[in-house]
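User: Now give one protein:

AI:
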Amino acid sequence: MKIYHAIVYLLFAVLANSCENAFDYPIPPNSFEVVETDPPAVVTLEQQDGVWKMFVDGEEFYVKGVAANNFHDKGIQYGANTVRTYGVNDSTRATLDKAYAAGMYVNFGLYIRRETDGFDYNNQTAVDQQFQAMREAVLQFKDHPAILCWSIGNEAEASYTNTKLWTAINDIATMIHEEDPNHPTTTTLASSNVSHIQHIIQMAPEIDILSVNTYAPNLPGVLNNLATAGWQKPYMITEYGPRGTWQMNPEPDRILNWGALVEQTSTEKAQIYLDAYQNHIVANRQQGCIGSFVFLWGYQLHGEVLTWYGMFDKQGNTFAAVDAMQYAWTGSYPTNRAPVIQDRSKILMNGKRAEENITVSKNSTNTATVEASDPDNDPLTYAWRIIKEKSAAADGSLPNGIAGLITDATLPSISFNAPNETGGYRLIIFVIDQNNKKAASAVIPFYVE
């Protein structure tokens, strides 16, 4: 049966894929438009024979999710069933509509301000204003048929000291339960820190599901930390992937003399995603893990190294990590697979690997080569670029390369001139199967003296 509801458009600032951006309050004046939609899904949590399960309209539902900042509705093509958003912005309605049209649900992000970004949880006026903004968002979107659950904050506890944060989160969760009985609540932590989980148990009992963002070295420890903290409800892993740029100290050979970081090839990353899902997510289904969200579905719009995460390039080509996740979610790889750069030994600059602290002189002539293959023997094209370390395009994404340095950037082996300014640079190769919109990538950092 069809129902009618009013859409109240909230004009928040755009949040891309992180917890770094904030929203300003109060909310601008609302506008209204009457549209026709299907009724909301009824999402419940139930413990059966000691195992937590999620149900959508009475059917068991295991979350196979994408933490996305782009290509939100494409996950269904590879076996995903849910998309995670991080906050309300002027494209929220379109994201929900596209997800629903594609057959996907949405873990709806309600962004709350962080102490580390200057928000004061002792300022009751500001807290009340934030609460009201969250309430308006819930009222606006609660009846959308794509909603799966409400995620209150993303890593809001990062570098925090004021435990009133948890009271504010619990107040929002209480309000959601009052206004929307159809969808459960969660809050997303930056790690599985035991004391933080215990604060949620004690101060935010209205949270139904615990969500944890965690990466390669820490993911295996989540289950033990939950048990140590005494968490008795279901949980989700809401971001996972290769070791983060902030976690590199245990791998000193990947930290170069000038501070640049050595990145894995797209093929190496794909295996990390697959191992994480198989060994530490779906393997823990009987221990309360009701699903997960792979990071990053899309391409980076901020970060220390803009090619570190991202399962697509800016043209929409998919890397091997997407193939790996299709296998994880469905048990079958796609018919056509992404190109392969097997490991970091397959890309060399002046005959050296990335870990060898490559330094060159200004304007010097240099060479680079990559060895790539295609599992389906499809023709491959090559696209090299050189960027200055930590540079970005206007939207925060990977910039175009510095013009005029590479003689012919479309070959597997190239000759190029070093930039004429001292500093760190990154030499990037994209190997593309244009017919099937698949890609591989690899990177070598170097320093110009």
About this structure: The longest helix spans residues 124-141.
